[in-house]
């Protein structure tokens, strides 16, 4: 569940689409393939002309941002490129475990129902088809060698949603229908702006997914591990999910709202009451069973895609779960290392945290891939370390990694800053930890359902390399339905100046046209176009719903992010530690 959704009514939300092209590792930059830019927001954007009227707009140029380090110019030599999906939210909208009637209860329940929610799989397929056409990054021409999905891959912790998501990315046949024949979700009978029944029925039709075409990695989000994204599994919830009755209460007429969004017992009671008093018979479905942490992780091994377990094969044993962890490291290239975190608050609540066992593992991983780090205010040299640029992946972001947790076994819990919550004061904040390891150049995440790029210079440090960039990317389920291409490159320093690292981000719209045309589009394409239109209406016209400004500002979208290299990247001096130089030189 996204947090802090903006309820103000904005009328001008622009969407952007941009293609990435990257060459072989450490190769000089090449020009992007002809015509590639039109596949991204560098070439053209999607803009609103009216309440349900979207059209193509002009492309959007890249914005250069620096982190206390002057941009030396040029494109740089490519190291690695990848494609990021986030908050796909594959939804079984016919499930009895959904609480659509809470939608008018305000944040965080204003994501309980979306007009476009029956079409999440079609939007995912349209995005993957577009991304498959973008084989190289537009900035450096490096091959985009893998896909990473940064959490909230599914919406309600259900097994059938998880199987659909894996099949979607693997490129298999997907059957979006659950329960049995016919449609058994919310219709115009329950909410006047809902889509016509015939369109909802078409959204249940099976289709052959395009898949990622490249290896893909899974990051876990709160909706993957928690019921509705904010409650632990329990027998009461599960009996409703797999059972033969679904509550149908008109959204506009419901006023029995939960007093406390974090009170799972109250929500369960309200759900049970609704099922007992205002439900209809629907086909039961045992595949709607909830998955616990171990089942969630192991299901990614039941896949034909690469790599095995989609990163989780490298996960250590997690003492919090007595099972394989949801966090792991993986090689992104000869000079770049990826680290994926599991920031789910398994005790409940949509916001995230890092339990102490995982935080200690992360600190050990950072040491392993750094020959220089800081502790006690002093630089420490680690001769056993192997220097790599490090990219961190997680679902939660800097504003949302703030839940202190409730499980004593995981204490102390770590927030982004130790001052975010009183209960986090006993543990080091993630921000401080990352500032101690200059090899971390970027942190890629989701959860907020918007595009944002944030700079985190190390406070008080004279070394610009101790900062890092955060890249947060919009959701598929909400406006603007976008993904991001990421390229990492470097440029040698001259005249004694340190090398420079460039992190390029380029926004991509899914491939369905902005105007839905049933006569000229495939069923998947038509439903994807329709979903984007309804997502815009939900965000920018309906009061109190999604964030109309989720596309972000220009500096949050197509970007060139400049940072001082933490070590010498030149092949002839591989692994040499960089001498600290004043900021901006």
Strand portion: 15-25%
Oligomer: single chain
Helix content: 10-25%
Estimated structural class: alpha/beta
Largest beta sheet, briefly? 7 strands, mixed
Structure annotation, total helices: 10
Any key phrases for this structure?
17% helix; 24 strands; disordered C terminus; alpha/beta; 585 residues; 10 helices; 7-stranded mixed β-sheet; disordered N terminus
Could you walk me through the main structural features you see in this protein, from its secondary elements to its overall organization?
The two termini are 43 Å apart. Residues 1-35 and 573-585 have low confidence and may be disordered. The protein is globular. It has helices at 120-132, 159-170, 197-202, 222-225, 235-242, 264-277, 293-299, 356-368, 430-435, 523-540; strands at residues 15-17, 44-50, 53-58, 63-66, 77-85, 144-150, 173-174, 207-208, 216-219, 245-247, 279-281, 317-318, 323-324, 328-333, 336-340, 372-375, 378-381, 389-393, 440-445, 452-456, 468-472, 482-491, 500-509, 559-564. A hairpin with a 4-residue loop joins strand 12 and strand 13. The protein has a domain at 15-296 and 448-573. Helices cover 17% and strands 21% of the residues. With 585 residues, it is of the alpha/beta class. The strands form seven sheets. The protein has a seven-stranded mixed sheet.
